[in-house]
Structures are given as C-alpha cells and as structure tokens.
Design goal:
Length: 473
C-alpha cells in the first residue's frame, strides 16, 4: 500500500472495513487530486466489483462499458444490459455468488464505482437504479462496502450527500480529498528522488498547487523552471491544455464557470456576488448561485464573510494556484518561457503574491504555529474604505480567544529585514484597521516569511513570527 499522507482518509477506510453495518462511502474532490489512486492502493487493486464511467459518452455507451466490467467479474450474459436496472440486477448476482472476492481480514464485499457522474447521463435511469441497488439490496447486508467516486464534486454532493429523495441520509461516510499540503508534497518529492529544497517545494506549490498528478510529472533531471516550461509552456506539454480539459470534464456546460473564474482572477482579494452578476457572460439569478456553489465544492474558490462588512455579503476568491498561474502566464501565450521570465522584474512580484496564496491554503499550519489549533477562527482579507492612503491586509485571523492576527506574508531570498519605513507602514496598517473596525480584541502583527526575520530593532514591533518551515508541519 503506497499511500503518501492521507492519514485521516486511511483511518476512515479502515473504519469502513471494521464496521459491522453496511457502509456507503462517497469520495469526491477536484480532478487529478488522487481519489482513484487512494482507493485502489488502499485495497491493493482488489475489489468484489469495480467499474468506471467513460468520459463524454452517451447512455448506451456507459451501459455497454458497465456490461464489460460485469463480464470481467463473472457475468455470463452475452447481451449488454437493456437498462441500468438490469445492470445492477446482474451486479447483485455477481456479489451473491459464493466465489465473489471478499476483503481478506474483514470479509467485506467491496464495490467501487468510479467516476459515477459520467454514468449518470441525461435522461438515463442510472440514479434511480443505483438507489434501488443500495436501498433494496446492499443496505440490508452488513458485509457490503459501496464506494462511489467522482471528480464532478457537485454531482456527488447534490445527488448523493445532500439528496432529499432516495439517497436521503443513505451515505454513511464521506471523504473530501484535498490537495497535498507542503509536507505531503515534500514526502512525494523525496519518494520520487527529486532533490528540491523547501524553498523550491514552496515555489512548485505556487504553480502546481498540491495536486499529486501534476507533481508526479516533474522530471528529477530538470530544474523547477525547466519543468514548468516543459509541462505548461511547451504546446506538447502534459499540462498545456489541462485548464480547459479540467472544466469540460467537471461541468456539462462550463462556459459560465469559466467566465466566473476568469473574472475573479482579476480581483486578487476576492469579489462580491453583485460585482460578478453585472459581468458579461455571467448574469445573476439561480445559474450564478449554482455555478458559485459548484466551484466552491470543487475547491477552486472559497467564500468568506468579512465581519466588518456584514451588509455586503460574501466575498468569493480563487484558491487554486494552478488556475491563477495558468490564466496569468499560459492562457494568452504571451509568456514564452518561464526560465526566461525568472530574470524579469515581474517574476518577483508574482512570487510575493503567490506566496500569500500558499499561506492561505495552509491556515491549519499557521494556527498550529500560533498555538491556537483548537481555537475557533475566521480568516479573510481586508481593505480599508474610509482612510487615505488606504491599506490592504493580506490575511486577518479573527480568534475567539480575543486576539486578531494581522498577517503579512513576505517572500524573499534571505531573512526578511524590517526597516524603519516598513515598521511605520505596519503600525499604520494596524492603526487604520483598529480605527475602522473598532475591535474589542488585542491586535497582533504577524509576519509569515520563508526564512524568518532579520533580528533588528524594528522587528520588535512584531508579536508573532512564522517561517516557511512551519508551513511544512
């Protein structure tokens, strides 16, 4: 079993096997995050039955493919299933055979249906047949573990987990598989004998996020910049068309999702729904609500509430590093080579902004470094509205223990040096925040850097210092 990280997920899978009741596990997460790999590796590629949906195929093609999987597991029928009810009836016969494979320790019959959203084509009877299979057969057998998986996260959530019909309260467990953390990226690079130091691992996260599939494509013989050129900027690169393919595979009509994402990409700290609704190609109403929810469920964006602006509603912000990098540097074809771009001034500006996103995606590790893992918090960006000159705070952590951390994220090639001018700027930011928000909590200035702070008199204004190494916790 070659599974990196994923400790909570492995524990949950073991719990499913040890359970004395029938288990219905839904596994979801963005494309390429490693859902299928996790399940296959945990069970050693051995199942009582396994089948996967086929991308961009119609109902009959999906049933035909399912019929071929049935034959591999012992179905002797020569004809393809006439409908999904017949397909699942044949599956029941396979599972009831005394020769069916069972998990050696628990004796469970494990059924793994991968990419289920692809099977549920328009106007098919797949969902109702799956409903009958679970409610009419599987749910009465304590030795059954049904696992359904899909990259179309919104389908899994809306049709199974939050369903108000036949699947209401039927899913017994769920795994939302998130991208790797920096620590898990480091473990993967070590396994692949890629000699990146932590600074290079952070920069790889700025481009590829923590997506295992992308990281496994990195060639250990090349530098990080060479890998970026080879995978993204080369027209034949493995990830050159990934952006478009990703959205087409996740959403049946992805035009609105793309319009939303590409509008949000221009707003560094997030955008209000009202601002999205007036954009051409987006519009307001239920379609916008649905699209935003689907993008959030896939993990591409986050929704956060700024407690200082309650009347303005939620802000939506892109949290996926790969999407932001692709849109800024690859999509328009203007940047021909990352290796060359590293010599330009724009590279250092990008690096600073991208590091902020790395930190925002490691809030758990930041809280651990602050010693507040168990404290309830809210996190958001903040921009002044009434003071000139205005200020922007990259990350505000609002804590239930009566402290607010105003976080500044800085990426530099050596320990970051706070000088008199920057100290004045930091104190001014804190003053503006205090004057505009009137908090009843203590304000802590917090610096999150790669190599820490240079120790000088101006660094004394900082209450909390977090280094890049602590993001690897």
């Amino acid at each position: 079993m070659k599974i990196l990280g994923r400790k909570k997920e492995v524990t949950l899978l073991n719990d499913c096997l040890e359970s004395r009741r029938p288990e219905f596990l839904a596994v979801y997460g963005r494309r390429r995050v490693g859902k299928t790999y996790l399940i296959r590796e945990f069970f050693g590629q051995k199942f009582s039955f396994y089948a996967t949906g086929v991308a961009n195929k119609k109902t009959r093609d999906q049933r035909r493919a399912f019929g071929e999987w049935l034959k591999k597991y012992g179905d002797t029928s020569e004809k393809e299933p006439g409908d999904w009810y017949e397909a699942f009836s044949r599956l029941e016969s396979i599972l009831e055979d005394e020769r069916v494979y069972r998990e050696p320790i628990s004796g469970k019959r494990v059924i793994f249906l991968d990419e289920v959203p692809w099977m549920d084509t328009a106007r098919s009877d797949f969902k109702s047949a799956l409903d009958m299979f679970w409610n009419g057969w599987a749910s009465a057998r304590p030795d059954v573990l049904l696992i359904v998986c899909g990259s179309a996260t919104s389908w899994v959530i809306n049709n199974l987990i939050l369903d108000t019909g036949g699947f209401y309260n039927r899913v017994t467990r769920q795994i939302h598989l998130a991208p790797f953390t920096l620590a898990e990226c480091e473990e993967l690079f070590s396994l692949n004998e890629i000699p990146f130091q932590r600074r290079q691992i952070i920069e790889s996260y700025m481009v590829f996020g923590g997506i295992p599939y992308y990281l496994n494509l990195i060639d250990k013989r090349l530098s990080l910049a060479q890998n970026i050129d080879s995978l993204l900027f080369d027209e034949r690169g493995a990830l050159h068309t990934e952006y478009d393919m990703m959205f087409r595979s996740l959403f049946r009509n992805s035009k609105k999702h793309l319009a939303i994402i590409e509008t949000m990409a221009k707003r560094r700290y997030g955008v209000l729904r009202t601002e999205l609704a007036v954009e051409e190609g987006i519009g307001d109403g239920e379609p916008l609500t649905t699209s935003l929810l689907e993008l959030e469920q896939c993990g591409f964006i986050r929704k956060y509430k700024n407690y200082t602006k309650e009347k303005q509603g939620f802000y939506y912000q892109i949290m996926d590093p790969f999407i932001l990098f692709y849109l800024k540097y690859v999509k328009d074809g203007k940047t021909g080579s990352w290796l060359s771009y590293k010599d330009e001034g724009g590279y250092y500006a990008w690096r600073g902004l991208a590091y902020e996103l790395v930190c925002q995606n490691h809030l758990v590790q930041i809280k651990q470094a602050l010693g507040i893992s168990g404290v309830e918090t809210g996190a958001y960006a903040w921009r002044s509205e009434h003071t000139k000159p205005g200020v922007q705070i990259d990350l505000v952590i609002d804590r239930k223990d009566d402290v607010i951390n105003l976080c500044e994220m800085k990426y530099s090639d050596r320990p970051y040096s706070i000088d008199a001018e920057y100290e004045k700027h930091l104190l001014y930011k804190a003053e503006v925040f205090r004057n505009e928000t009137h908090p009843k909590k203590a304000i802590h200035l917090t610096m999150i850097t790669v190599d820490g702070l240079e120790k000088n008199a101006y660094a004394n204004s900082i209450q909390n210092e977090i280094t890049g190494d602590e993001l690897f916790a």
